[in-house]
Specification:
204 residues, alpha+beta, 7-stranded antiparallel β-sheet, 7 strands, Pyridox_Oxase_FMN-dep, Pyridoxamine 5'-phosphate oxidase N-terminal domain-containing protein, Split_barrel_FMN-bd, Pyridox_Oxase_N
Length: 204
């Protein structure tokens, strides 16, 4: 939609709309992984990785056992890159633009953690060896230089009832989505039948 008289187009307008930033919101942001933030990272089994590249933005899920993102020190995080679909949108973006962000979620906890920084892609053998699971090393490891970290209050999670809402209904299965997006080239029922075993066999 084209902008109109109701479009907010300046920082001044935005400030007037939202009001002042609270002192707590400012003080909770630090340029390192503080002790409470480390505890959140070590408890988190899921994070969303955001990157930027020449073809646009990308946000993709990352997950494993709690603590799969390692706090190497207060300025460094290590994120193993496991098997996926090989699109590698995030990694392609990081090649050209190392800026990235992580949003950590913790089941049952309303607060989330945001970490911004810059990442490089490492295939150092000793680093890969630290993240072997089921006999499989990751493809690479993101070495993240932390620039800022701060927790986000629970309002969004509470509004979404993320950890308390009943399971959603009416969501198409992976097979149904693939069948639709390939104009029937993929058989939905056959895909869904073997999908659980396929995922389990290729997790790492």
């Amino acid at each position: 939609m084209p902008p109109d008289s109701h479009t907010v187009h300046s920082l001044q307008q935005l400030g007037a709309l939202l009001g002042p930033v609270s002192e707590v919101s400012t003080r909770k942001e630090v340029p390192y992984i503080a002790a409470p933030y480390r505890a959140m990272i070590e408890a988190s089994p899921f994070a969303i990785l955001a990157t930027s590249g020449p073809d646009g933005l990308d946000a993709s899920p990352r997950g494993d056992a709690p603590g799969f993102v390692v706090v190497e020190d207060e300025k460094t995080l290590l994120l193993p890159e496991r098997r996926g679909n090989n699109r590698a949108d995030s990694l392609r973006n990081l090649i050209g633009d190392p800026r990235m962000a992580l949003l950590f979620l913790i089941p049952g906890v309303g607060e989330t953690l945001r970490v911004n920084g810059r990442a490089r892609i490492s295939v150092a053998p000793d680093l890969l060896a630290r993240f072997v699971v089921r006999g499989q090393a990751p493809k690479c490891v993101l070495v993240i230089d932390v620039e800022s970290a701060y927790y986000q209050c629970s309002r969004a999670v509470v509004r979404a009832q993320l950890w308390t809402a009943p399971a959603a209904t009416g969501v198409p299965s992976a097979g149904q989505i693939n069948a639709l997006m390939t104009d029937g080239a993929i058989d939905a029922e056959a895909f869904d039948r073997v999908q659980p075993a396929r995922i389990e066999a290729t997790l790492y």
